[in-house]
Amino acid sequence: MEAAKIQAFSAFVEIPLQPASYDIWDKKYRLKTKTGEAVDQEIRDTFLRVARALAEVERPEKRELWFEKFLWALDNGAIPAGRVTSNAGAQDHKPATSTINCTVSRIVPDSMDGILASVHEAGLTLKAGCGIGYEFSTLRPRGAFVSGAGAHTSGPLSFMDIFNAMCFTVSSAGGRRGAQMGTFDIAHPDVMDFIRAKREDGRLRQFNLSCLITDEFMQAVKNDESWDLMFPANKFEYEDSSANMVWRYWPTTEGYVTNNIGQVACRIYRTVPARRLWDVIMASTYDFAEPGFILIDRINEMNNNWFCENIRATNPCGEQPLPPYGSCLLGSVNLTKFVEHAFTEQARFNWDKYREVVGIFTRMLDNVVEVNGLPLAQQRHEIEYKRRHGMGFLGLGSTLTMLTMRYGSPESLEFTDRVSREMAEVGWEIGVELAKEKGPAPILEEEFTVSEEMLAKRPEMKRDGFKAGDKVRGKVLMAKYSRYMQQFDRKITNEIVRHGCRFTHHTSIAPTGTISLSLGNNASNGIEPSFAHKYSRNVIREGKKSKEKVDVFSFELLAYRTLINTSADPDTQDEKNQLPDYFVAADDISPREHVDIQAAAQKWVDSSISKTANVPTNFPYDEFKDIYMYAYDKGLKGCTTFRFNPEAFQGVLVKEKDLENTLYRFELSNGETVEVKGNAEIEYDGETHTAANLYDALKEGYYGRF
Description:
This protein is an alpha+beta fold. The chain folds into four domains: 1-42 and 50-80 and 330-434 and 506-655, Anaerobic Ribonucleotide-triphosphate Reductase Large Chain, CATH 3.20.70; 102-223 and 284-314, no CATH class; 443-499, no CATH class; 662-706, no CATH class. 39% of the residues lie in helices and 17% in strands. The protein has 28 helices and 28 strands. Strands 1, 2, 3, 6, 7, 11, 14, 17, 22 and 23 form a ten-stranded mixed β-sheet that branches. Helix 3 runs antiparallel to helix 4, helix 6 packs parallel to helix 7 and helix 16 (410-438) runs parallel beside helix 21 (490-499). The longest helix has 29 residues, at 410-438. The two termini are 50 Å apart.
């Protein structure tokens, strides 16, 4: 390019929102009155509303200063998560909504009263607009005898159906799709049923599902050992001398037989080869993209609150592992905003501006705690006591492309490491400053009694002179003995020991689906590469009987067409208009490269990362099945994969060539069958549908229910 033209585009270039992006903002984030009239006239009004609402938390004499700073950060890449963007400053129009994206249920008790009470609490949480996660392996296995009822239980999955129906009803009434995560212990007797649950058409479609995978199970798979499936024994089972029993830690000890170190007596129901169970997970994930993979021991080992929490569940997309009643707010920094001289040899990332945005955004997100709007007192206590927030980024794939780096390359790993590390370092520095100004998270000032279990988890505490019974403040236990915090410069951790920190958790990388598409103009989601550079998105339209197919383009393609070549096209055969080699999308990345990128970021992320390794439909199973083991070996906290399988489901994001190459078979009322390509349009029941979306709506049972 000519020097003058490069200079003209040295700063970030604003590209008009594509129609799909504007539409998502209008439907999800634009504030409207109860009668549907727009309060936010344009996107900047949304930013003004959010900045004003969060600045009101500050001292009166500082509110205008922080309003201007917050607005500047929003203009320059800070994007609060969907609940904040939608609900902050909106109390006059929707007072019963929350600014919190992520929650986890209390431990679901193994009793009818406890289960139904949990459904009630979950309904209130979903109604407020929050996502919620639950562990269901606390419920006894199918066929177990319930002495109080004099009958045998139908098992955890049947109760999950109740939560599923409740979620669908609440989300249908509220206009926003409810989001739930169901987790399940890999040693539960019904784990095979859980893994295969979504093979049944229409079942548990309001859930994401993930297995809680332990280090012990992974070693059993590696060593080709047997694996015990077990559940806590009742008193009569424990006293039966013929029963096969083991001791293990369990999320709750109430009503169970325990030993002197808090373990619960568990009855072994049966034993299976660990690799057989592993193969069932891999086959289900290959065909149905579920269950996900949560490495629960690693999550607890790396938790900053290791001394007072036992985590067994996550929010719906997995980026926030949380304790019972745990809550967390989210926000993401749009990395594309910091690229200068995009697509040229002079391409660079503005690190100084990035650090400034992260610093202001950290304070802004901390203020969200004060306007949380959570419906349950236990949730409000958790978020105010620990002040968790999860700042992450979006647009990593788009940014790497604009910097002329191929996603998954060694240089892209170095960039991912640095962009994650600098976010974390700035966040902790601001957290200490906020603690000095406003006070630390209350948990960090509380004193905790050192136990033998704590000394076993952290032998270095003994070397430092601690013994059982000593009292230690939370800020010392976090700053000095958190495995995560030990990676940082002593200057940061010493400051936390001295002054505390405003929060216990700072970073989390969310999937950012609709905020990327809307406010990010379809910058790539979270830590992902772009799904494709031209594709379709299936969206729910109120009053429409099936999902609607909307065409979208990646941000980097729009930017490349604006800056370099207006005729560039990812599908062109014309050499002049082809995109450079570094213009890759999800299917161009190997599963190992997906994991490598996640591992580069995870080191500096104190919560977790929502990441999906996308693979093509024809990707060989033999190559696919090792991806989770590779993720375990790379130190990840979890892993999810997606392979488009038209026989199983119609995804949210779809490539035209997949639809073109897939035939859907419809049976007519006269018994005839018709085969139609997925992208064909069909007139049915007074509406026009794509064949793929109509087929999916009829098969999954949601046709006409939006």
